[in-house]
Amino acid sequence: MDNWLLGFKLKQMREKSGLKLKDVSEKVGISSAFLSLVENGRSGISIGKLQSILDVYGKKLSDLYEDASESNKVLPLEQCQKLGYDIEGISSYILLTDPGKAPIFPVHFRLEPGASIGPITHKGDEICFIIEGEFEFIFENLETGVIETYVAKKWDTVRYAGDLLHTVTNVSSNPSVLYSVIYYTDVADNPHLVPQENHFHV
């Protein structure tokens, strides 16, 4: 499990326990600043300190790798497959177990400050929902040459056609998270059913 996914799980456990960073750090004997770095995936942690944190939540190491429910109605983020968008400062996970069978393609993106997705175009339309931070969206109509720029903050939603050349940049000073959902009028446009180069155009 990489540092970011580990931190995501630990933050979930802490928030479900109703504890603050200070509460946990004092019990474990670490600083609140260090625990914050761990939860945000910006630092690793020793197995001993990790176990001490889990003890505070009444959890075991195995709970970090808990399987999804048998009904497959719940898909923990750490079990999602990576999108394969291998650019420094970007983590991306596909939020479906069988994305090739769906008319939508949902992805969890986490961008470090200054990191950008694109410029790209793709089939289908796209909706982005900002979970944390602030993003700049730049759209270019390749037929008219018109360029539009927007800034979206936490809880904002951005919708656009995938054939617009678009670039998405984290313009905040902290890691930012958005959920992107591409939806298709024809499921055959799903990139898991056709060669990737026929879907995304960078």
Radius of gyration: 19 Å
- Classify the fold: give the CATH topology of the largest domain: Jelly Rolls
What is the residue-averaged pLDDT?
A: 83
In terms of per-residue confidence, which ranges show pLDDT below 50 for 5 or more consecutive residues? Answer: 193-202
Provide the domain count: 2
CATH superfamily of the largest domain: Jelly Rolls
Beta-strand share of residues: 25-35%
Class of the largest domain, according to the CATH hierarchy?
A: Mainly Beta
Query: How many DSSP helices?
Result: 4
Distance between the termini: 29 Å
The profile of the biggest β sheet is: 5 strands, antiparallel
What CATH architecture of the largest domain do you see?
Sandwich
Q: What's the shape?
A: elongated
SSE order in H/E notation? HHHHEEEEEEEEEE
> What's the quaternary structure here?
single chain
**Helical/strand content category:** alpha+beta
Looking across the biggest beta sheet, what order are the strands in?
A: 1-2-9-4-7
Tell me the total number of β-strands. 10
* Percent of residues in helices: 10-25%
Domain HTH cro/C1-type: 10-64
Organism: Fusibacter paucivorans
Keywords: DNA-binding
Protein name: Helix-turn-helix domain-containing protein
